[in-house]
Structure formats: C-alpha cells, structure tokens
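Following up on my earlier thread - several people asked me to post the actual chain instead of describing it. Fair enough. Here it is, all 341 residues.
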Amino acid sequence: MNEILNAKILFIGNKDGDAQQIGWLLANISKPSMDLMHVPDAHAFINQQSAAGADVILLDQDSTGDTAFETLKDLRRNIPSVPVVILTDDEENTGQEAIRSGAQDYVIRSQLTSSSMARSLISAIVRHQGQSNAPATTPLLESATAVLNKLPLGVILMTESSQVLFFNDKAKKYLEKKDGLILDSEQKCRATVASENKKLAELLTNTLSPETNGKGELDFALTITREESDTPLTVMLAPIGTGIAGKGAVLFVSDPAEPVELSIDTICRLYALTPAEGRLALGLTNGSKLDDLAEEWGVSMHTVRSQLRQIFRKTDTSRQSELVKLILTGPAALQASPAIL
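Reply from S.P.:
Thanks for posting it. Predicted structure:
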C-alpha cells in the first residue's frame, strides 16, 4: 500500500468553532499534509452523492441530532468509498455504537490533540483502503457465512493479537450486550473484567503455542463473568489457520443458561456414538464441564472420561474444543435452536 503523503479531510458539523479548532490541530501536522474542508449541513452534502475529493469524513455525531446514527448510515450508504470517523463527547454510549454502525473509528472531543486526531484519520484511510482492495465476497463465502449464522453458539475468528476477523450472528448478540465480552475500538475481542481479559489473552497465546499438545483440555476453556446474569459465559478456543492474516483461533462462546436443542439421535448416527456418548457430546457442546455432567448424571468421572475417549476415537478428535468445533460445523447443528425453558 502506498504511503499517504496528502489527505483531504471533510469535517461535517454545524459549529464553526469546532471547524477552526480542527483546522489549527491539523495545521500542526507536518507529514502527511492535511487539507480541511468544512460542511455544516450533512444532508445537503449527502444529497450531492459526491465525496468532493475527500479521503476521510470527520462527522460531528453530537451535532446531527439523531441517536440512531442515521446520518452515519446515510453517509456509508451513499458515499461508501470514503471512510467515516466520528467526533463525539460520549465515548461509552456513542463511540462503540458508531463502530458497529459503520464508522472506521471515533475521536473524543475533550481529548483531541494534533497527533491523536491525525493518527485516527490516517488509520481510518489505511484500513478502508485495505478493505476496498480485498477480494469481493463470493457466493461460496456468503453461503459459508449463512451456515455459521445458523450455529447455536457464538463463533468469533481472531488473529493472534485478538483482532476480530469475523463473528456470527450469535456472537454478535453477546458482543452487543457488552456484558462479559466486548469488541473495542481497535476491533479486538476482550473481556470486560480486567483479570479475565488477562486470562483470555493468555488463553489465546497458549492455544497458538507449539507446545499445546502437552496441555490438558481445560487449559483452553474459560468462564467469563456477566453483571446481568448469575451464569457466566463459557468460552473455548481452538487454533485455526487464517490465511494472509497468519495464525489465529476460533473462539466458541456459549451461555450455559441457554441450552442448545441438538438431536442426540442425529449426533449418534453421524459419528457412530452410543446414546450415552451422544449425551456427553451434547453436554460438552452446550458448554458443560465434565465434572458437572458426572455429578448431574450420578456417574463417576472415570465413566465420563472413558466415554470421552471413545468419542475422541470415533470422531478422530483429541480435545473437547475440536469435538465442539466438529459438531457445531457439521450437519447436526444446522437445525439447532435455543431450547425453550
């Protein structure tokens, strides 16, 4: 990608004072050089359906008067070739939602500096260029996405730096609640509790480590605390290849309070399992732990572990995460739905 030597910034906001302040801040940037244009009326600009040569749009969300990001969405719909960065006073309620509504980034008015604003604007241009140069979505990829959206558990594909490449509809619901797991401004998946976020990062590192073969299955699972629920989320990581993005992992997210209605008979037929083995496979897919299942069914851990070894042998897997991945990406999961309790 070519180095950006000059960038044209279009500021949309109804306050001349803000435009002057932004102009002063950008004037302090020597490289790349930045030219500022100011448009007070967003809708008049959108109606022109022309980018006016802008490389990036800086939209004052607080001056739009809408709380559903309609102006932002109109910009993305009518001028998709230009990335949008949001200017706001409200980081908690506006910034994160702006990202989900199509903004490349957001900046906080009270924290504006020349370097921070320039960094956000240039990064937005670079990321947008990378997305524009990516291969077009093929029907096959669309079909694969549709399949993942039918899965009963959340699926999040991440790079080794926690950068999120994809999440299915179920995972989106968990992330949008921002209770336990969130997607931050850098598009990284993290836990809301600091100590658990550290464990999640360590879990990702361990999952992608060459020494993972010597670790137990529990080393790749974690519970995530939720403030609005007594039941924590259960997450499990499994390594995957992410092509040009390098090494990565798939994060399976489940809510044990919302069991999945998979057919044990289907699982047994597909993988030649006994009814007891099928019941265990379903329990693990629902995010339950071995010791909890043994206690619930009134059997010994020796019996459960013996059944698990047979399941691994029959499904050609070696870890619970691999087994869950196999079931959730196979035909047994496509008709699954949350159980009605």
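Residues 1 and 129 are 8 Å apart (CA to CA). That should answer part of your original question.
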